Amino acid sequence: MVSANREMVVYCFDTLVAHYNSEQAPPPAFDEGQHPLFVTWKKVINGGEPRLRGCIGTLEARCIVNGFRDYALTSALRDRRFPPIQAKELPHLECTVSILTNYETARDYLDWEVGKHGLIIEFTDPTYNITRSATYLPEVAAHEGWTKIEAIDSLMRKAGYSGTITGQLRRSIQLTRYQSTLFTMNFSDYVAYVKTARGAAPIINGAKPGNY
Question: Where does the AMMECR1 domain start and stop, copy by copy (predicted)?
Answer without folding.
Answer: 1-194
